[in-house]
Amino acid sequence: MLNIHMPRLSLYKPERGNDYYFLDKQIQEMFTIGGTDINIHKYLGPSAPSEDDRSAVQPEYDVVKETNIQDLLFLENRDRKYDPDVYEMRGIYNVQDIDFDLSQFGLFLSNDTLFMTIPINSSVKTLGRKIMSGDVIELPHLKDEYALNDYDVSLKRFYVVEDVNRAAEGFSQTWYPHLYRLKLKQIYDGQEYAEILDLPVSEDSDTTLRDVLSTYEKEMQINSAVVAQAEADAPKSGFDTSHFYSIATDDAGNVALQTADETDLDASNINVTSDEIADRPDREGYSGYLVNYGDGTAPNGAPFGFGIQFPRTNQNGDYYLRTDFFPNRMFKYDGSRWIKVEDGLRMDLSNTLERRTYKSSFINNTASNTIDGEAVPERQSLSKALRPRKPEADN
């Protein structure tokens, strides 16, 4: 009796055989028929460093290998170089609406992330490597020909690859993957994509993609408007008590008030004498953050002079602002001497160069001194600069 043994049936094989390549061709044909063109700007790597260690540099592009990290502290590659050639392939993704999410504080975009699938083998053959984070994809079918501006070119759409995985639907009956699933985000006007945004929008145009796509100018205009409104609402630090009045008191705390005539209640009948001028309050009668040290003005809006030296002619109770003090200092004349009233420590809250207080110069101190022949920043601890030096060795 003849025994015939049939070979064991199995769709999976340890090696990728003809079944795998047959299915791969059919899948690529599906992308050819139903997919859309995508233009890929290939990420080459960070700019080559200026140091002597250039072992990982690709000499043909003068860049570091794309798998290296430029900044190990922040784990980012800012100075990115892209291939001047543009690679074309096919991809498929689900088109979805981009809506604004108003359920939280602020304004957020929802569904602004695209998930695209591309064939593995054809993408590797096209790029010379697998697609990776940092590659920029342009979608030609999303060009906007009817933009509301003065440009006569179509607005392009660029997305950067943030993550690459094998798509679950890309596994065939042979248990081998055929598709990559890409996570895409729109690029922004940043240092990373400077080489792409500096490209012209067309061959015969001097306008760059940055001029057309970037929102930098609009964002700066919005930021300037916000700062201007903030300066109008709160022009200086501390509390503003200029619209309040302070009452002068003697050493015992008694207040001498003058009242108008009870018959006609005419306040203009009150005559202010020189002695009463001397009784002006010495400072604002309020406490709080930067209140007792106000903005360098006299209490109750009294008139005052200013300059770099005291006037020769003055009367008891006069106020004078010395502008040669840093910060400016307000004085009051008591008949024999000038008494300090307050320092003008209230400052503009915006980050401008007009800040004239110790607060700005101390925090943003960029000055330096020369100590023992060595330039030492003033913000550096002097204990480090003045530490004793080791004695020099005898010759």
What report would you give on this structure?
The protein is of the alpha+beta class. It folds into three domains: 18-214, no CATH class; 238-350, no CATH class; 357-388, no CATH class. Helices cover 17% and strands 22% of the residues. It is built from eight helices and 16 strands. It has helices at residues 18-34, 120-127, 194-197, 209-213, 216-233, 274-278, 358-363, 382-385; strands spanning 36-46, 57-58, 63-64, 80-93, 99-101, 108-110, 114-119, 136-138, 158-166, 179-186, 304-307, 319-322, 329-333, 338-343, 368-371, 374-377. The strands form five sheets. Strands 1-4-7-10-9-8 form a six-stranded antiparallel β-barrel. It has a four-stranded mixed β-sheet with strand order 11-12-13-14, with no helix packed on it. Strand 12 (319-322) and strand 13 (329-333) form a beta hairpin. The longest helix has 18 residues, at 216-233. It is elongated and about 135 Å long. The termini are far apart. Mean pLDDT is 78; it is low at 380-388.
Helices and strands in order, then pairings?
Blueprint: H1 18-34, E1 36-46, E2 57-58, E3 63-64, E4 80-93, E5 99-101, E6 108-110, E7 114-119, H2 120-127, E8 136-138, E9 158-166, E10 179-186, H3 194-197, H4 209-213, H5 216-233, H6 274-278, E11 304-307, E12 319-322, E13 329-333, E14 338-343, H7 358-363, E15 368-371, E16 374-377, H8 382-385
Parallel strand pairs: 11-12
Antiparallel strand pairs: 1-4, 1-8, 2-3, 4-7, 5-6, 7-10, 8-9, 9-10, 12-13, 13-14, 15-16
List its salient traits.
4-stranded mixed β-sheet; elongated; about 400 residues; 6-stranded antiparallel barrel; alpha+beta
